[in-house]
Amino acid sequence: IIDNALDKINSTRGGIGAQYNAMDYVSQYNAIGAENLTSAASRMEDADIAEMASKLSKESLLQTYQLMMQKKQQEEESKKFAGLF
Hints:
Blueprint: H1 2-83
């Protein structure tokens, strides 16, 4: 009877140990997945920031160019107008 009980206890302990190992593996797998997901999200945000900075810089340059062209046109018109008098 004692041998049967010990066999049953050992079998149950083995099953519990196997389940614990499986849960530990899944926990580690999920932790790695979460870390990879966080890293990917960070890279996407960094890419978005770089893209937006580039776009802002481009828009700023275009706006500066437009203002310079308007100023040049106004100066040319002023010279033409001054030449009339």
